[in-house]
Design goal:
Strand order of the largest sheet: 1-2
Distance between the termini: 11 Å
Shape: globular
Strand content: 5-15%
Oligomer: single chain
Number of helices: 4
């Protein structure tokens, strides 16, 4: 994936849409260190959902690359692939 070129040490896993990120589906990440790359319009929602992964995953971090995006990027609802 495009993301793996910028972050070669990470394994990419798509959720299939911002609404598909749920603790029930994230049990496959048990004991792993997780870095979340939410779409620009999902950062706040995923930040609140990420808290439930703390008991499942070894660690959970939110990428903040898109938080400094322009208004045009926000209107276009970019994701990490668009940003890269």
């Amino acid at each position: 994936s495009i993301r793996s070129l910028a972050f070669p040490g990470l394994i990419g896993l798509a959720t299939g849409g911002k609404s598909q990120f749920s603790p029930q589906k994230m049990h496959v990440l048990a004991a792993r260190r997780v870095m979340l790359f939410p779409d620009i319009d999902a950062h706040a929602d995923w930040a609140s959902r990420a808290a439930c992964l703390n008991g499942i995953c070894a660690s959970v971090q939110m990428a903040d690359a898109l938080t400094a995006a322009s208004d045009a990027d926000r209107l276009a609802k970019i994701d990490i692939a668009d940003w890269l």
